[in-house]
Design a protein that fits this description.
globular
């Protein structure tokens, strides 16, 4: 076989490594979001229903995707929304990202539109960042 060609076993190994990396990235973001939501619900039990997730992630068949779009699902919507105003903003949108995660163009558009409408939009990459954002957001209520 030519030196420039990859064997089938090399290709399969490369494919499995790529899928594993993507899966680990998605799992890391998922676990971060779960941890943040658990912390919030312990800290602020009376606001349990005010912080919620937007089900934008995941692959869907075209029929279900079209159905959800008809219902109002928008690409780029943030992972979490806190429907509580403070003195400066009418709501808080939180996009969860891993340390190396980047926003998609649709997420950047969502951020821009949220900010135009007095909605705070942040990206959190750790539980510590999430805690700080929430704490400072609530401090602006007094």
């Amino acid at each position: 076989m030519s030196k420039n060609r990859m064997s089938i076993s090399e290709f399969m190994k490369l494919q499995s490594n790529t899928k594993e990396k993507k899966s680990r990235h998605n799992d890391e973001e998922h676990h971060l979001q779960c941890t943040c939501v658990k912390w919030f619900r312990i800290q602020y039990p009376k606001l349990h229903y005010i912080l919620f997730a937007v089900p934008n992630a995941g692959k869907r068949d075209p029929r279900i995707g079209a159905y959800m779009k008809e219902e109002g699902l928008l690409p780029g919507a943030p992972d979490l929304i806190l429907l509580k105003s403070n003195r400066s903003y009418c709501a808080l949108c939180i996009e969860m990202k891993t340390k190396t995660g980047r926003q998609q163009p649709s997420q950047k558009k969502w951020e821009m539109e949220a900010k135009k409408n007095d909605i705070m939009y942040v990206i959190c990459r750790s539980l510590e960042e999430f805690k700080k954002v929430i704490t400072e957001y609530f401090e602006d209520m007094t």
